[in-house]
Amino acid sequence: MRTGWKNKNILPGFGVTMGFTLLYLSLIVLIPLSSLILKTATMPWDRFWEIITDPQVVASYKLTFGASLIGALINAVSGFIVAWVLVRYRFPGKRILDALVDMPFALPTAVAGIALTSLYSSKGWIGSLLDPYGIKIAFTPLGIIISLTFIGLPFVVRTVQPVIEELGADTEEAAATLGAGRLLTFRKVILPELLPALLTGFALAFARAIGEYGSVVFIAGNIPMVTEITPLLIMTKLEQYDYTGATAIAVVMLVVSFLLLLLINFVQWYANRKVISN
Fold it and tell me: Which family does it belong to (predicted)?
């Protein structure tokens, strides 16, 4: 009988596999991020503060994180509904609809940006219908939110879908047998089981939206202080050979993103712990 933390696995050699894992993560993640921080550390503090507090940069922070948060929240709700429909109902064209969910994964981001811009511009199919009412989507923050919602939906659907499949309809039937209504069944039975997966999908959609560039630059219009996202600002500084400015802005994005994802992971851990305890 084997005891301790070394158990027999399909892949033998804990030391080799762990060494490969650490080496791979170091080369792909840790070393690039560390070099970014080290590059910024060589910069005088007053210069760093001047760059990251520039009004144009601050405006891009607000737009990027705000639009990403709104898009991820929309996806958390709509993604749950789409996943529920795909799992619980049978209807013609279900397989096609299921395949369309993955379209943002396969579609190049530039193509998605051009498609959304042509659709929501004042001369597009949808934009032309809204333009007489003074509603503009393309080249506004609203257009950015739509773009980020488009690219983030599959993360929520594909994360929640397997959990709904495992949940099964028998739990709802049992709750109904005990006299629980639909709302009570959803709050007490379904939501607690789905909450960890929903938080995971939300975190993935939010993380993807923060760094999204290709699909946003076309529909945003890139107007400084209005529709200029932070990734575009970083690219602009790199094109101007302002590596110091680009690095400083990137470090702020890195730190804020890490803290937000850490908070989301803590909430997810707490939700998992609560589900297990119940």
Answer: Belongs to the binding-protein-dependent transport system permease family. CysTW subfamily.
At which residue do the structure tokens 């939501």 appear?
191
Give the C-alpha separation, 117 to 73, whole Å. 22
Q: Over 80: is that where the pLDDT of 233 sits?
A: yes
Q: What is the pLDDT of residues 132-158, one digit of tens each?
A: 888 899 999 999 999 999 999 999 999
pLDDT at 14 over 80: no
Task: Provide CB contacts within 8 A for 70, sequence distance 6+.
Answer: 145, 148
Taking only the tens place, the pLDDT of each residue in 40-58 is 888 888 889 999 999 999 9
The yes-or-no verdict on residue 162 having pLDDT over 50 is yes
pLDDT, tens only, 66-89: 999 999 999 999 999 999 999 988
Domains and CATH numbers, the chain: 52-277 (1.10.3720.10)
- Side-chain half-sphere of 135: how many Cα atoms within 13 Å? 10
What number of other Cβ atoms are within 10 A of residue 200's Cβ? 20
| Secondary structure, 3-state, the chain | CCCCCCCCCCCCCHHHHHHHHHHHHHHHHHHHHHHHHHHHHCCCHHHHHHHHCCHHHHHHHHHHHHHHHHHHHHHHHHHHHHHHHHHHCCCCCHHHHHHHHCHHHHCCHHHHHHHHHHHHCCCCCCHHHHHHHCCCCCCCHHHHHHHHHHHHHHHHHHHHHHHHHHHCCHHHHHHHHCCCCHHHHHHHHHHHHHHHHHHHHHHHHHHHHHCCCHHHHHHHCCCCCCCCCHHHHHHHHHHCCCHHHHHHHHHHHHHHHHHHHHHHHHHHHHHHHHHHHC
